[in-house]
Amino acid sequence: MEFCEKLKEEGKIKYLGFSFHDDYEAFEYILKYRDWDFCQIQLNYMDTDIQAGLKGYELTEKLGVPLVIMEPIKGGNLANYPESITEHFDAVTPGMSTASWAMRWIASLPNVKVVLSGMSNMDQVKDNLETYQDFKPLSEAEYQAVDQVVKELNSRAKNGCTGCEYCLPCPAGVDIPRNFSIWNGYGIYSNVGETKWRWGQDMKEEAKAKNCVECGQCEGLCPQNLTIIEDLKKLQEELDSL
Ligand code: SF4
Ligand code: SF4
């Protein structure tokens, strides 16, 4: 930090901030460590309780540290839903793209100053520009529509794993919460491409569900009383078939 602060004094750094991916406790520690000019976190309406989360957002507001946002559309996951879900949006404000709801939700938070959106074609660029031209924060009715969508998306999860990790360590090396996170993500967003990548490339073979030897140790430790052994079998088959 001393080196960076010296560069700032010399005018070589104009704004000194940090980008963050870890849990809330680490975030609070770093945010309070010094008087930052800005910081950058991952936040969207489906990720309010992970990493810094909304609690972290509130702390930045309290400390007056402006925010840059990553993953406002969660890697595209918040851009494509079936009609049974988008109808909640259309009932309140019809004609807007699904992605624009996520972009408006995040920019409606007053301490959000910059939103980083990865765009892969001209239509997405146009849509984002339209969303932020004459920007209007979400109304109360629109917030309620987002809450309804969040509820319905979460109800599509395959099981109720919260990622608490009480079931770990597994003697056979199975990363139980990670297996369930991929399976549940697939259930919620039906994003085949992302799921294939997370399952096929981002997950070690030795941590996959298939290594379970059915010792039963984890099931007694799970506060959600999940049928872990049975669910592991189901997910291995389902994800392998993608
Ligand atoms: S039942 Fe399977 S997943 Fe659970 S602790 Fe035993 S080997 Fe690991
Ligand atoms: S204890 Fe249960 S809820 Fe917690 S991570 Fe393990 S399977 Fe998921």
Keywords:
single chain, 242 residues, alpha/beta, 10 helices, 4 strands, globular, binds iron/sulfur cluster
* Order of neighbouring strands in the sheet with most strands: 1-2-3-4
Helix amount: 40-55%
Broad CATH class of the largest domain: Alpha Beta
Count the E strands: 4
Beta-strand percentage? 5-15%
Name given to the CATH homologous superfamily of the largest domain: NADP-dependent oxidoreductase domain
Spell out which ligands are present. Answer: iron/sulfur cluster
Per CATH, what is the topology of the largest domain? TIM Barrel
**Class inferred from helices and paired strands:** alpha/beta
Tally of discrete structural domains: 2
Sheet bearing the most strands, described? Answer: 4 strands, parallel
Write the CATH architecture name of the largest domain. Answer: Alpha-Beta Barrel
Shape: globular
Task: Sketch the topology as an H/E string, one letter per element.
Answer: HEHEHEHHEHHHHH
SSE map:
Layout lengths: L1 H8 L7 E3 L4 H10 L4 E5 L10 H11 L3 E4 L12 H10 L5 H10 L4 E4 L6 H11 L7 H16 L20 H14 L2 H9 L27 H13 L2
Parallel strand pairs: 1-2, 2-3, 3-4
Helix pairs in contact: 2-3, 4-7, 5-6, 8-9, 8-10
The structure holds iron/sulfur cluster (SF4) (2 copies).
